[in-house]
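Hi Prof. W.,

I finally got the Glycerophosphoryl diester phosphodiesterase prediction working! I wasn't sure whether to trim anything, so I left the full sequence exactly as given:
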Amino acid sequence: MTLVYAHRGASARFPEHSRAAYLQALADGADGVECDVRLSDDGEVVVIHDHTLDRTSDGFGPVRERTLAELRDLDIWTWKGVELPEGAVLADQLLTLDDLLELLLAANRPVGLAVELKHEEPQEGPALEDAVLSVLGRRGWTPHRSRLANVDVSFMSFDADAVGYLLDVVPGRYLCQLVDLEYEAGTERLADGSVGIAGPGTDYLAAYPEQVRAWIAGGSRARVWAVDTAADLYASLAVGAQEITTDDPALIRSVLAGLPAVGPREPVGVG
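And this is what came out:
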């Protein structure tokens, strides 16, 4: 079975990381959701991708220089050019990690949560990792199973130091080393099996499919991102990827539903 993770929620339809995007992902039947996390000025773990606010809000400057209250005052919706769903409230769209956990816990079905830790400056140290673990711990999460009620938690980063820090706390099977053509640090942990999930981008997969196959053959799971076309999906399935991260979980699930229930296949067609 191929698991479908919603990349920043159903971000093809609604603004990435918004409450509406995650609710839509659950409605679309996503097996899990992915989120990026950063720290606010007052140490809260907020769900946002970019280092700065400029692209996805009416604010500007580094996320790290705003308090949570200041971040909640921003409009993170209008840039996408879509209407709010009926009943949705603009002020509720920005999420903390704890907000997202609450939303997933209310899903009343098993769901995965892939938390990507974003780092720009090495001197930041492990403050973000510690804050994330603290948020989870307050909810009753424990690292040995990395599960919180119905929510299975895994952790991802391009930053090999962040993955290494978490490896001292969390079993490697719950850790994902992200790689693409520009960032290949940490692949030795995939080679030796200390980290259990390989996270290649579609560009890396296209360039090095045999490497991804080798990681899978060595016992790793592969979580390919961001798979938004049928062609990328078929390429992922061809190497045996067990997990797909996509902006459009409804589309990918519909394509998967139309495929025969067989093992890895060669890419066919173009989507």
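The chain has ten helices and ten strands. Does that look reasonable to you?

Thanks,
D.
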